[in-house]
From TrEMBL:
This is ABC transporter substrate-binding protein. Residues 23-249 form the Solute-binding protein family 3/N-terminal domain. The lineage of its organism: Bacteria, Pseudomonadati, Pseudomonadota, Betaproteobacteria, Neisseriales. It comes from Vogesella alkaliphila. It holds the Pfam family SBP_bac_3. Residues 1-21 form the signal peptide.
């Protein structure tokens, strides 16, 4: 074997090692506490980042976590700016056409946040301003179910902006994932005088759980994520992270 052949063989043998060392770029939405937020020092914290780090550690993946607004996340995956998104993203048939989803990693219903004592019936919705997060499953559900009853649906890039408008009475209600409303609004000073009102929204058409989104077609990475997710669910790592942020189970443990 001559020197050139040796170099070529060395390069070929090195390819798997290079692939293993490649950084997996993960994106999340930091305007969605307690699932994800950005600290004053720029660090990204919350349930989603902690789950991402636990999965990366279990799967022995070198990962890099970045932030962007929720409505830009799927397009960023399509444009191959990121390999993975862990951003409390509801699994829907429409999204599943353009990204691959991991197994469900949590499932919580939708609720309406409004002034305490608000009585909700079909007539109440007429003329009411209701805030939703852009591209969230609640936006679609509000358009399908609440808009026909006369509600005006106002869309926000950040759910925290909807909270501000609710507090200043520019909104009559915010429609969102219940856990976010509880942890980031009702349990804070700004939530005084407000409550969940009306029904629990858990129609399986909209609530199939949230999944980790992976670039379409990256089956190897998706498989690694699912294996790691199963392991952290089994060994208690998931529950330890969950209990750090939530007072109730958000995964349907059996």
């Amino acid at each position: 074997m001559n020197y050139k052949h040796l170099l070529a063989l060395t390069a070929i043998c090195s390819l798997p090692l290079l692939a293993q060392a490649q950084t997996v770029r993960i994106v999340t939405d930091v305007s969605y506490p307690p699932f994800s937020k950005q600290a004053a020092d720029g660090s990204i914290t919350g349930f989603d980042p902690d789950i991402a780090r636990a999965i990366c550690a279990e799967a022995k993946l070198q990962c890099e976590l970045k932030a962007m607004d929720f409505d830009g996340i799927v397009p960023a995956l399509q444009a191959k700016k990121f390999e993975v998104a862990i951003a409390s993203m509801s699994i829907t048939p429409e999204r599943a056409k353009i990204v691959d989803f991991s197994d469900m990693y949590f499932n919580v219903p939708g609720r309406l946040l409004a002034k305490e004592g608000t009585q909700i019936n079909d007539a109440w919705y007429k003329g009411k301003n209701i805030g939703v997060l852009r591209s969230a499953v609640q936006q679609q559900e509000a358009n399908d179910k609440l808009k026909p009853k006369g509600a005006q649906i106002k869309v926000y890039g950040k759910i925290t902006d909807a909270f501000l408008d609710l507090s200043s009475q520019r909104l009559d209600a915010v429609f969102l994932e219940s856990t976010v409303g509880e942890e980031d609004f009702l349990k804070t000073g700004k939530g005084k005088g407000y409550a969940f009102v009306g029904p629990v929204f858990n129609d399986p058409k909209y609530y199939q759980g949230c999944g980790i989104a992976v670039q379409k077609g990256n089956k190897e990475l998706l498989a690694k994520i699912n294996v790691a997710l199963k392991k952290i669910l089994k060994d208690g790592t998931y529950k330890k992270i969950q209990d750090k942020y939530f007072s109730n189970d958000i995964y349907p443990f059996k």
